[in-house]
């Protein structure tokens, strides 16, 4: 979940960061604003308790209005794709952004947002879990976007729809078991047992997971092996994530990025002599061209209020050593510490949970642009993690 949260703020603000000035602006939110540093390649939107502020390449700062939820109020939602679920007059409602996609035929007695578990949106169907009682396992439901829901299973979590319209689920009672159901919800077969680090790729209808030292993929047809981890020098406790059509596997000492055919896109050793909590500290993100990935690592993080640095790296296709681009010195937060990155052409926007931010040119043609001071001077900024702090390309 830490990696998911690390990009959530960027996705959400990207969806709402282009608002105009707000007519009912509180006086303290539109007071004299600081000047932004020059050199940004594009506007940056920073959010504080007051709302959204645009930092312009020309040095101007503009108040763009209060933060607004990108989904209907009262709904439980995912910042990754803005999908949401909730209740309306006892009916389950599911949508994306401000658009309602489906409304249940039946009414349900438990109408707390938490009664709805995982929601998966496919091209023609959707699946979700519903808890009648939080002390009991949830029921699995399947529905077409224009048809009523059908209960098809118990204690199963929907993961991904394949391109052929089948549904892959995780069996809650059998730890790590992956099941395949057909388009009508009927059980076809078990795909794997004891699967860990399960990562659904909903853009391709695939599923990547790990069984001990093997990384495997289910592409809708069969399960096949992508890598045997000792062969790619991953021997510690592994971490697996999807990166824009690639598969990244890391431990505390190294990172390897794989293509779906099992070939190595790039790999790198991570900084030597890590402290107890040092490892990759952000999501690994691919650039728009798909020719490189970026990530951050920490140095000196013990998870107990330590002092150290966080470094932004770029790893290009075919390389065997990542290139450091930028370092930030900071006092690490003890709980829920993270960093996040976003590409804009050759530039990277970096931010962390300690309220630092910077724009970094990966081509090294321009110097990094520090944004921490100007954001700290914005109305509504609250230090030490007690206020809203989000940064995104505008």
How would you sum up this structure, described in words?
The chain is mostly beta strands. The chain has a domain at 233-363. The protein has helices at residues 2-16, 372-376; strands spanning 44-47, 52-55, 61-65, 76-77, 83-88, 91-96, 99-107, 116-121, 125-130, 139-144, 150-154, 156-161, 167-171, 177-181, 187-192, 196-201, 206-211, 214-218, 223-228, 239-243, 246-250, 254-258, 264-269, 285-286, 292-299, 307-316, 323-331, 339-344, 347-352, 357-361, 369-370, 390-393. Strands 3-2-1-32 form a 4-stranded antiparallel sheet. The longest helix has 15 residues, at 2-16. The two termini are 25 Å apart. The model is unreliable at 1-21 (pLDDT under 50).
């Amino acid at each position: 979940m830490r990696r998911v949260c690390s990009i959530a703020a960027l996705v959400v603000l990207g969806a709402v960061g282009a608002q105009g000035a707000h007519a009912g602006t509180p006086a303290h939110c539109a007071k004299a604003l600081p000047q932004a540093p020059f050199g940004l390649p594009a506007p940056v939107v920073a959010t504080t308790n007051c709302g959204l502020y645009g930092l312009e390449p020309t040095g101007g700062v503009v108040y763009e209005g209060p933060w607004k939820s990108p989904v209907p109020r009262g709904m439980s939602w995912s910042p990754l794709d803005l999908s949401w679920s909730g209740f309306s007059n006892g009916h389950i409602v599911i949508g994306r952004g401000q658009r309602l996609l489906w409304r249940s035929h039946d009414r349900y007695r438990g109408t707390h947002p938490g009664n709805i578990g995982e929601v998966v949106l496919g091209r023609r169907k959707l699946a979700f879990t519903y808890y009648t009682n939080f002390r009991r396992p949830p029921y699995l439901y399947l529905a077409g976007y224009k048809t009523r829901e059908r209960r098809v299973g118990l204690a199963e979590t929907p993961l991904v729809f394949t391109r052929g319209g089948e549904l892959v689920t995780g069996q809650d009672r059998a730890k790590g078991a992956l099941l395949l159901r057909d388009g009508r919800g009927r059980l076809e077969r078990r795909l794997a047992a004891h699967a860990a680090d399960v990562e659904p790729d909903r853009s391709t209808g695939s599923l990547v997971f790990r069984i001990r030292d093997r990384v495997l993929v289910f592409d809708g047809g069969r399960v096949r092996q992508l890598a045997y981890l000792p062969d790619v020098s991953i021997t510690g406790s592994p971490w697996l994530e999807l990166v824009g059509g690639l598969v990244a596997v890391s431990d505390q000492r190294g990172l390897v990025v794989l293509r779906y055919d099992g070939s190595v896109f790039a790999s790198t050793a991570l900084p030597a002599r890590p402290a107890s909590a040092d490892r990759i500290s952000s999501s690994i993100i691919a650039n728009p061209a798909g020719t490189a990935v970026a990530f951050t690592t920490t140095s000196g993080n013990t998870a107990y209020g330590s002092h150290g640095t966080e470094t932004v790296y770029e790893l290009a296709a075919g390389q065997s050593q990542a290139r450091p681009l930028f370092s930030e010195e900071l006092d690490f937060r003890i709980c829920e510490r993270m960093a996040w990155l976003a590409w804009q052409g050759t530039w990277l926007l970096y931010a962390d949970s300690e309220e630092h931010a910077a724009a970094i040119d990966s081509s090294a043609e321009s110097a990094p642009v520090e944004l921490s001071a100007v954001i700290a001077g914005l109305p509504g900024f609250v230090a030490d993690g007690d206020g809203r702090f989000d940064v995104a390309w505008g």
